[in-house]
Structure formats: C-alpha cells, structure tokens
Amino acid sequence: MSGTISNKERMQIPLQDMPEQEPEARVNNFAEVPLGFEEAVALTESMRCLDNCKAPCIKGCPVGIDIPAFIKKIEERDFIGAARTLKKYNLLPAICGRVCPQQEQCELVCVIGKKGPSVGIGRLERFAADYERMSGLVEVPEVAPSTGRRVAVVGSGPAGLTGASELARLGHKVTIFEALHRPGGVLVYGIPRFRLPIDVIDTEIDMLKKMGVEIVCNAVIGKTLTIDDLFAEGYDAVLVGTGAGLPYFMGIPGENMCGVYSANEFLTRVNLMRADLFPDSLTPVFFGKRIAVIGAGDTAMDAARTSARLHPESVTVFYRRSREEAPCLPREMEHAEEEGVHFKFLTNPVKFIGDDNYFVKAMECVKMELGEPDASGRRSPKEIPGSNYIEEVDTVIMALGFGVNPIIKDTTPGLETNKKGIIVVDSATGKTSRDGVYAAGDIITGGATVIKAMGQAKVASKAMHEYLMSKEPALLHSPA
Question: What's the domain range around 449?
C-alpha cells in the first residue's frame, strides 16, 4: 500500500477521530471513555505517517520507540508485528497508548504536524497493543540465560514495572516489592478505570510474571524491610521506583475537617478499593451533595470526573489561575465539562468552615487576578482585596500535586536526597549515592508522567546490568 501513495497524498488525509462513549452514558459508568480504532480507521490513520522523513518523533519519545516502523507495520496490515515492534522498546504499550501525553512529546514534533494535525501516534499505539491482547497471540519477550544475579525492585508503578521487565530480559532474577495489596502502583490507585481499564494493567503484569518476575505485595520497604535488609537477604542491587504519592495541602484553617480529602485518598478508595460499588465493596467513601475539587492538573480532572460518576448534586473545580494556565491536558478538561463538571477559575479557598460535628459545610474563597510570570513561566496569581465570599460545599478534594514519601530516605543511611526528599541520582545512569542502589520515576523528579518514569527506568536498568556484570557475585554490594 505504501508504494501507491505519495507523501503529498498522505498529507491530505485528515486526522481520524476515535469514537467515545457519549457523555450522558459514560457519566453513569466507569467503563473506558475512548473506544479505540476499528481496523479500517487505524489503516487510514497509519497512512498519514510520511515515508522517509527524519522521524523527530523517535527523539520525542522518552523510551525511544521506532515510531515510523510500528506505524508502517499497521499500514501493511501486520498488526501483530506492530505490537511486537512496540514491545522492543516498551513493554507497556497498551498503557502508554492511553495515558501518556503524546501531544507534548512524540506528536509535538511530528513532521506532518507543522502543517496540520500530527499523526495520532498514541491512538495507533493503543490499537496495535489492543489488537495483540485481544487476538490471543501475545508473545512473552525472550529472556536471556540466567546471570545468577538477584535484583529487588521497590514499587510496581510505571518505573518499577519497566525496570523489572528490562532486568528480567537481561537474565537477572527480579523480585518486585509492592506496598499495596495488588501491583500496579499509580496505574491502579491513581488513574480511573474510565481512562485505564484494569484488564489492560493486569495483562501487562501477567506478562512480567511469565518472564519470571516475582511480585511480593503488602511489603512496605522502609517498614516491612529496609534497603539494607534486601541486601542482607541476598539481593545484589536495588531499583527504587516508589513514585511521588505524598499529597500536598494548602495549610489553611479547617483543612483537617471531615469531608476534606487528598485526591490520593479519594482516588485510591474508588479506583483500588471500588468505593463506588459499596456495599458490595466494603470500603466506602463519604461524599456529599456539593463536591469541590481544588486544582486543575490531570489528577484534579480524574478526581472531578470520578466524583461526577458518584452522582452528587454538583462537582466544581476551583483553580487560582485562568483556564489557559491549567496544567491538565486540554482534552481531560473538555471531557470533564461534557460530564457536567463546573469550573471556577481565578478563585482560591482560604478557609474551610465546619458544622457542629466537624464536617466541612462551606469554604471561604477569594477572587484572584494574574500578575507577572513566575519561574514556571505562568503568570502569578494574587488575591483581589475584599473579594472574599462563601461557597457551600460538603466534600472537598485537594488535588495540588504530590511530594515524595520520606520512608526510604529515613531508613536508608547514606542515601542522598535534596531538600524536597527527592533521591539524587546521576541522570545518565540512575545511580544513587549508595553502591548498588538505583532509582527512577517520580522518586527522582517529583510528579511527572508515566512515560518519563519508564524512560528513566530503562536508563537505570542498563546501568544496573553493567554494574551487576562488572563484578563477581561474591564482590557485589553488602550492607553498609
């Protein structure tokens, strides 16, 4: 097919839309909103990728996927081949095709995007991965002969899963230690099922198990075991991929009232504990009639859209800057609005007000205006004097970003961190200040994206392999 269509003709093909559940239907369920490409649509979209271009999209991908190669496989109707091309670089394409911000990475630098919409790389990635999964032809990646080395991976989020897969492929015996009762990290507790279905996550995790990776749940490293305990038990190296799950708050009066949640707790109760199914699920979540979400990042959109599916009278997002400064993906905000979520921009809470039982019943807000740009390049918000007013709310979800839990830092002597508790690493290797300890993902950056965490894990895994193979097993790291 590629020989019958010129690049000029390719550039005339419009971007193919992905069908979605209608808003009035999807707000009543937790099923996935985008429905994926049919084969014919995927074929048409694949033909928008230009032949023989310099492919800056590859450099735009944090894990370096050969994007033109997998798209060409789709154009040639070799859908299984497309999925296997993807998996040479990324073991989690079905996840990345759904939750990665391609429009800020590979699609941002797409050549055809200079004159129109970029190729729908993420949509095609999802199509190829889903086709393989649903075909029953999923192939377990080849694993090298055993090296005799044992590696512990702390955390089973994007960084941990990627690091485990890379190290297992290289022949190391890998064990993942996960604090929660099921693996997946932020993929299962932080991202709603209407964005990332659980069967997609489970398929990727099952693949790891088939590669020989052991997963130990309910293991809080820093409490159940320390990093030094892992070395004492015979592990030769450790990859820390515990993410950034410590929620930020504002430090304003009334913040500790009943009915005020962190987005982390709220989403975990619904996504992981399935509070939406109470009483069939035994972990409820209290919510009132008027839900307020504070913040406008992707987590805030997840919290707001999840709230809408619990059917309160209203869900309103409050953000201290304007719509243009909101850090969430534009499509996530559009989805939220379609699902009935309201937005109040240039508005910030300054106090929460409770009833006699210490449940939040209202919040005092102040109107904001934008001043000069701050260090991030966004205009700094400042209060408008005398603009205070009262909003009636009975549930508040704080979605203001996340920091790093100090448990690893506090229990690992000699591990260097910065003032925010983020682990300091050599960016070229992921190596920490402790011999044999490497780190990747949000634990070294603060909150970032799934694909960036995966890219860092690939870098760290390569360096770990070189470290492990450079020494005789008897000479590898021992406890400090």
Answer: 150-245+403-475
